[in-house]
Write a structure and sequence with these properties.
mainly alpha, globular
Length: 93
């Protein structure tokens, strides 16, 4: 039962990110962004993740808030590339 609940949660998160427009991604700052910052250790000195986010953003330094947005955007791009929502829509029809 727990596995099903977690799967549903991940699908809901994928739907949320996939259906958000690129310009609206910063709106996820206080929800998903905060979770990423805490769970991924962006506030606690996860220097390797911060460094990766800097490289992705093409910057020398990033605040944890900005790094979480880099991660959200990377998830958004990946989901758009995979076109997973289109697959779900086709299964429902």
């Amino acid at each position: 039962m727990l596995r099903i609940g977690i799967t549903v949660l991940f699908v809901a998160l994928e739907v949320l990110i996939s259906t958000t427009s690129e310009v609206s991604l910063p709106d996820l700052h206080f929800s998903l962004g905060q979770k990423i910052r805490h769970e991924c250790g962006l506030w606690a000195g996860n220097d390797s993740l911060l460094e990766s986010c800097c490289k992705m953003a093409g910057k020398l330094d990033l605040h944890a808030d900005d790094a979480s947005l880099v991660i959200i955007k990377a998830l958004w791009v990946k989901l758009k590339e995979e076109n997973r929502l289109n697959i779900i829509e086709r299964l429902e029809s």
